[in-house]
Amino acid sequence: MLDVTVIEDPEAAAVSLDPIRARLLAELAAGPASAAMLAGQVGLPRQKVNYHLKALERHGLVELAGERRKGNVTERLMRATAASYVISPIALAAVQPDPDRFRDQLSARWLLALGARLVRDVGSLITGAAKARKRLATYALDGEVRFASAAERAAFIEELTTGVTALIRKYDAPDAEGGRDHRIVVAVHPTLKQTEPQQALP
Predict the structure, then answer these.
(1) What is the count of structural domains for the chain?
(2) Selection from 64, 1, 50, 45 nearest residue 21 by Cα
(3) Which of 8, 63, 134, 145 is the most buried if burial means most Cβ atoms within 10 Å?
(4) DSSP assigned state of 71
């Protein structure tokens, strides 16, 4: 089972977003199960669970893990093809975000468009690398910093921009034979505040 896989097909995306099928995917990500086992876990008739499983299998979201005999019946044990799924903007076709339509380094919406392109491109690269049975060379850095003021944040961004720009100029070799282009995305945004869990009423 993969840690994460990318859904690019619009129909597969629609299938995965169905609440019942999403619940079945979550159950099957935890381990293989039959339609009868899932029916008890999600509180649905086995026939209805089978219907949803066939739709998920048809779009490559679940697969056969094995079979077992139970009385006179052979049960199919299904499992999720990944522990989690990401829907690529490719599934949105013509309405997917495009950061090339405008450029504003201080716009949160442009940052969102960059993030969407990152999901789209890396998702396609992962799919291609998996088919070719090759390792995909990537790097990511994630961290948090607390700025004392807006002025400090602005100074940080200026130094960050200067440093990254200098590195790009140093290592960029546009005429190198056998080289490969790489995309660099640097983002800074406020940390999302975690909401406190609601206390159950007595």
Answers:
(1) 2
(2) 50
(3) 8
(4) T
pLDDT in tens, 87-125: 999 998 888 888 998 899 999 999 999 999 999 999 899
Specify the CATH number for the domain of residue 38.
1.10.10.10
**Residue 105 lies inside a defined structural domain of this protein:** yes
Q: Are residues 79 and 12 in the same domain?
A: yes
| Co-location of 41 and 93 in the same domain | no
161 and 100 within one domain: yes
Give 119-144 pLDDT, tens digit per residue: 999 989 988 888 898 999 999 999 99
| Alpha carbons 118 and 6: distance in angstroms, whole number | 12
| 39-73 as b/e: b if 16+ CB within 10 A | beeeebeeeebbebbebbeebebbeebeeeeeeee
Mean of pLDDT values over 69-83: 89
d(CA 81, CA 98) in angstroms, rounded, equals: 29
According to the model, what pLDDT value does residue 97 have? 87
Q: Is 19 in the same domain as 92? A: no
Given this model, what pLDDT does residue 42 score?
A: 92
The pTM score is 0.78
Q: What is the dihedral of CA 49, 51, 56, 62, to 10 degrees?
A: 50
